[in-house]
Design a protein that fits this description.
globular, about 375 residues, three-stranded antiparallel beta sheet, alpha/beta
Length: about 375
C-alpha cells in the first residue's frame, strides 16, 4: 500500500463516524422499532394517550430509533409530528415552548403561562392526532417542573377529541427519571423499553460497517478493530469507540503510517483515560474565554451563525494555542450560559427531518 503521510489518505468521509451519522443508523434494533411504530400508529389512528420511554446508556440506539419513528410517521397528513432535541434545555417551560414552536414558530417567548401553553398546543394541533419525540430529556425531566410537565401531558388525554391521539416518545439515560415517571404516571399510560449495550460481536460488526464508509480500504487493521470493539463493550459504547478511532488517526499520521494499527488505538485509549480526570480550574476559565472570544468574533463579522460554525471557530482557536477543545455538549452548555446572561440569543431557524437548526446571534 502507498505510504500515507496525512489523514486525508486514510479518512475518506469522517462524517460517517459523527454522532449525526450514527444517530441515523439502526443496528440490531429493528424489532424494537417495529413495535414502537405499530404502537404509535394505533394511538394516532384510534385516539388516546401513550408515552414510550426509551432507556439506556449513550450509544445504544435511543436517538436512532426515535428519529426513525419520526421519519416513518412524519408524512401522515392526519397527524402533527414534532421532533425536539431537548438535551440542552434546563426548564420544562422552554421544552413546552420548543414543542409548540415546532408547529407554530410565532409563539411569544415571554408572557405566556404554562397553563396557557397547553391551550396553545391544543389549538395548534387543531383536533389532529400528534406524535411528539422528546430526545434526551435527562436535564429538565429530573426537575420538579419537568416531571410535572410529563404528567400534565399525560392528563391531556381528557382534553382530546374522540379519535384524537397523542403519542410521545422520550429518550433518557437516567434511571432516576424512569423511577419518577413510574411513580407519577398511571401504569397504563406509559411503557419503558430498556436498551441494553451492544455485545462485543455486535460492536465489531457496527464498527466494521462504519469503517468501510469512513476509511479507504485496508487503512484500519483487523487487530485495531477488535481492540476498539473490546473497549467499546467495556466502557463507552460505539460513540466512544469512534472518538478513539479518530484520535488513533492522529497517531498513525505522526508516524507516517499507511494503516491504523493496534498500537495507535492503544495510545488513543491511554490518552482518553488520562483525560477523564476533570480539567483544572485554570483550564476551565481559559475555555470560557476562548468560547466567548470566538463567539464575539464570528457574530461581530456575520451577525449570526449556526452552532456548528461557532464550535468550529472555537476549536480552531484551541488548535492554534495547542489546547484540546471541549466536546460539543460542554460547548453547548457554555453557549446556553451566555444566553442566560443576555450576551447572545439562541433561536430556532427552521425545522426538518433531522430536527431543528439552531442559530445564535448577539442580543440586542
Amino acid at each position: 500500500m502507498k505510504q500515507c503521510y496525512t489523514s486525508y489518505f486514510l479518512v475518506k468521509d469522517p462524517w460517517c463516524l459523527s454522532p449525526h451519522a450514527l444517530n441515523g443508523s439502526l443496528w440490531f434494533r429493528e424489532k424494537v422499532l417495529e413495535q414502537i411504530i405499530t404502537e404509535a400508529k394505533h394511538v394516532l389512528a384510534e385516539g388516546g394517550f401513550f408515552c414510550r420511554l426509551l432507556f439506556g446508556e449513550a450509544g445504544v440506539g435511543k436517538t436512532a430509533i426515535s428519529k426513525r419513528v419520526f421519519s416513518v410517521l412524519e408524512k401522515s397528513k392526519d397527524s402533527v409530528q414534532v421532533y425536539f432535541n431537548s438535551r440542552m434545555e434546563s426548564s420544562a417551560y422552554n421544552v413546552m415552548c420548543g414543542i409548540i414552536r415546532s408547529i407554530i414558530p410565532s409563539i411569544p417567548r415571554r408572557g405566556v403561562s404554562m397553563t396557557e401553553l397547553f391551550e396553545v398546543f391544543l389549538d395548534a394541533i387543531n383536533g389532529k392526532s400528534a406524535l411528539i419525540i422528546l430526545d434526551d430529556i435527562d436535564w429538565w425531566a429530573s426537575t420538579k417542573n419537568g416531571m410535572k410537565l410529563i404528567v400534565n401531558l399525560s392528563k391531556m388525554k381528557d382534553r382530546l377529541r374522540n379519535g384524537q391521539g397523542l403519542y410521545i416518545v422520550m429518550t433518557t439515560r437516567s434511571a432516576e427519571v424512569v423511577r419518577r415517571v413510574t411513580e407519577n404516571m398511571h401504569p397504563l399510560s406509559f411503557g419503558v423499553t430498556r436498551l441494553e449495550g451492544y455485545s462485543y460481536s455486535q460492536l465489531l460488526i457496527i464498527i466494521k460497517e462504519a469503517v468501510v464508509k469512513a476509511f479507504y480500504k485496508g487503512c484500519v487493521s483487523e487487530e485495531a478493530l477488535k481492540i476498539l470493539a473490546r473497549e467499546a463493550a467495556e466502557a463507552g459504547g460505539v460513540h466512544e469507540a469512534f472518538k478513539i478511532l479518530m484520535e488513533a488517526v492522529g497517531y498513525a499520521e505522526e508516524e507516517g503510517s499507511s494503516q491504523i494499527l493496534r498500537r495507535h488505538v492503544e495510545k488513543a485509549i491511554c490518552r482518553k483515560k488520562k483525560e477523564e480526570i476533570d480539567l483544572p480550574k485554570v483550564e476551565r476559565k481559559l475555555n470560557r474565554k476562548l468560547i466567548l472570544k470566538a463567539v464575539l468574533e464570528v457574530l461581530g463579522e456575520k451577525g449570526n451563525a449556526t452552532m456548528g460554525e461557532l464550535f468550529h471557530a472555537y476549536s480552531r482557536k484551541c488548535m492554534l494555542m495547542g489546547k484540546r477543545s471541549l466536546g460539543r455538549t460542554q460547548f453547548w452548555r457554555h453557549i446556553n450560559e451566555l444566553s442566560r446572561k443576555g450576551i447572545v440569543r439562541v433561536k430556532v431557524a427552521n425545522r426538518g427531518r433531522k430536527g431543528r437548526t439552531t442559530i445564535v446571534e448577539l442580543a440586542s
